[in-house]
Amino acid sequence: MKLEVKDIFKSFGETEVLHGISFEVESGKALGFLGRNGAGKTTTIRILMNLFKANAGEILLDGKKFVASEHQIGYLPEERGLYPKKKVLEQVIYFGQLRGLTKKEAKENSIHWLKKLGVEKYSNKKLETLSKGNQQKVQLAQTFVCNPDIVILDEPFSGLDPVNSQVLKEIIREQIREDNIVIFSSHQMNYIEEFCENIALINEGELVLKGNLKNIKRKYGNNRLTISLIGLSSLELEDLFAHKLSGLAKVVDNKEKYLVIELEKDKTKNDLLNEMVQLGLDIERFSTYEPTLEDIFVKKVGEK
Ligand SMILES: Nc1ncnc2c1ncn2[C@@H]1O[C@H](COP(=O)(O)OP(=O)(O)OP(=O)(O)O)[C@@H](O)[C@H]1O
Questions:
Q1: What is the pTM of this model?
Q2: Ligand 1 centre from 17 Cα, in Å?
Q3: Does ligand 1 come within 6 angstroms of the Cβ of 128?
Q4: CA distances from 172 to 92, 95, 183 (A)
């Protein structure tokens, strides 16, 4: 399956908040949907879920108009929507039935997911009596109870301790392996790096970067190296690049333990290495630079 979000515009009153957002998600390849606070992620997801109407643009599934109500979508919203006073099992069953399951199916699935998430012992407790992390797990059970083929997760790890995070990681991997469409929105870049083959980054309602994460990293790492020397601090090394090595490369980041440098246009790694050897420098580290997603995020949308 391939879900295509095409040229979506959305205004609230006079204010346009989405100015033509486009991206694609293929089943089995999770999409990391990123952006700063207020960028427009939730609004886009709500349009996808048909909770908001777009002013223009379309959403297609395998080339045909996507109708949210015709699909089982597992949505974990940013603002959690459970009933504090209702019993845990009761409400997961209720959500299953809302998604079109029979009472029997809803009950079976609810028990299955509550067990899988390790909260079945709270089945007959009121939700409000559970800890924050356990409430989050009940919300996750509600997300998966309908056996979704489209899964949209907004900050799914929020409130989970490291052990529970592992449980959820395995569930997300399973969803991807089962060839579901998975959209994953988070400000925690390490999770995006772990699960998502592709990313879409939006800023102030516009798409600023999309594509295969590995390719994007390669492109951003192009012509960049990480370097450190034995017996020289990173500041002293910076000084070296400002003077003796200035025609070969420039410093783009000082990470304290090492520098990230960018080769000048007509220079190669070997040119720089030769020169450093000629200068008798004691090289500790000299390797190609792979930026983190966080580096790329900050570079693209950090300062405007
Ligand atoms: N119902 C609404 N009425 C008016 N403006 C809205 C409404 N919902 C969202 N907005 C505005 O649309 C813009 C995008 O908000 P949105 O919630 O989509 O951002 P986001 O990327 O999900 O942010 P965050 O990471 O903080 O959750 C913001 O300027 C927000 O104030």
A1: 0.86
A2: 8
A3: no
A4: 19, 20, 10
